[in-house]
Write a structure and sequence with these properties.
Layout: H1 10-16, E1 31-34, H2 41-50, E2 54-59, H3 62-72, E3 81-85, H4 88-98, E4 105-111, H5 116-120, H6 146-152, H7 155-164, H8 172-181, H9 190-201, H10 212-222, H11 225-239, E5 240-250, H12 253-264, E6 269-271, H13 281-286, E7 294-300, H14 311-323
Parallel strand pairs: 1-2, 1-4, 2-3, 4-5
Antiparallel strand pairs: 5-7, 6-7
Length: 324
């Protein structure tokens, strides 16, 4: 087990699937899809608790897939755990095209954002406080890098990215400095960019690095994270079995808003938790990276009818009228 990765909201995720604790009574196989395997923290707990008949694991990170194959592939587990090196959107699209049993899910988990190992590996370029190449691609075999965006995009486009995806109120000063400095020297490393942001923007909040939102905005754009979640959720909801559940962990307000609205407005099922689920204070102390995590749960099928709290009172009033 990878000790560097602490799965966020683990207990809450397990609870979100508690309706399947006695799934043998449902008289059907239990099929699980983990679209963001990471280092397998959530999957190990789900495997132990629910013992899915078949589990499909996907991740676009080559290191995550390598670790998953080492742990889960083998003669004993053959067929029970199937591993795919691809984005969860690609996997779901293929299921739609194939129209196979792979599209019949009972449990789905999407843990969005960057995993701890990705952040901790300076060479991945996600961290603003570790020297590494300006990359930020979750799948390093394809796509545009952060360096390409910083060095080639226009001033207007950079301002749009940082204000829209980073929700930064006034990124113009930082962007002007980037455009000015890149003329003489291209931006190639994480500390080069974060250092400029720190110098130009300054610290406004203790413990919150000024480059945080800038780096997050670049990551969202490079990996098309908002676009992907917006497209994949309706497809997944359509592929769920009756009473199946999708649990989604987000780390950004824009992601959370998309997930909430799609679940809330769906005609295929209902939002299980009207109030968003967040980590406990204890978890945030143990794992500071969990602070911005939010969990929302969707269930396929009709919502259970709410008990009529006033039915008894009305019946008593009607009975009194008959007596009178």
């Amino acid at each position: 087990m990878n000790q560097l990765h602490k799965p966020v909201l683990l207990n809450e995720v397990i609870d979100s699937f508690s309706v399947f604790e006695n799934h043998s009574k449902l008289n059907r196989d239990l099929i699980y899809f983990d679209g963001t395997y990471g280092r397998g923290g959530h999957f190990r707990a789900i495997q132990k608790k629910f013992s899915p008949t078949i589990s499909y694991l996907t991740d676009q990170d080559a290191e995550a897939i390598k670790q998953a194959q080492q742990e889960w592939e083998g003669p004993v587990k053959a067929g029970k755990v199937r591993i795919f090196h691809e984005n969860f959107h690609e996997f779901v699209q293929k299921n739609v095209q194939k129209n196979t049993e792979q599209g019949s899910f009972d449990l789905v988990l999407l843990d969005l954002g960057v995993s701890s190992p990705q952040l901790d590996q300076a060479e991945r370029g996600f961290s603003f406080n570790k020297e590494g190449p300006l990359d930020m691609r979750m799948n390093q075999s394809t796509g545009i890098t952060a360096a390409e965006i910083i060095n080639t995009y226009s001033q207007e486009d950079l301002i749009s990215i940082f204000s829209s995806y980073g929700e930064i109120q006034n990124p113009a000063r930082v962007v002007r400095a980037i455009v000015h400095d890149r003329v003489t020297e291209a931006f190639t490393t994480t500390l080069q960019l974060s250092g400029l942001i720190e110098r130009v923007d300054g610290w406004h909040k203790k413990g919150f690095h000024p480059a945080t939102q800038y780096f997050m905005a670049l990551r969202l754009v490079i990996n098309r994270e908002l676009e992907v979640i917006e497209k994949v959720l309706p497809l997944l909801m359509n592929q769920m079995r009756d009473k199946g559940r999708i649990s989604v962990i987000t780390f950004h307000s824009l992601e959370d808003r998309i997930v909430k609205n799609i679940f809330k407005n769906s005609l295929d099922g209902f939002l299980v938790n009207k109030k968003v689920i967040v980590p406990t204070e204890e978890e945030c102390k143990m794992n500071p990276r969990a602070r911005s995590a939010k969990l929302r749960i969707f269930q396929k099928g009709a919502a259970p009818e709410k008990p009529d709290k006033f039915a008894l009172r009305r019946a008593q009033k009607d009975a009194q009228k008959d007596i009178d």
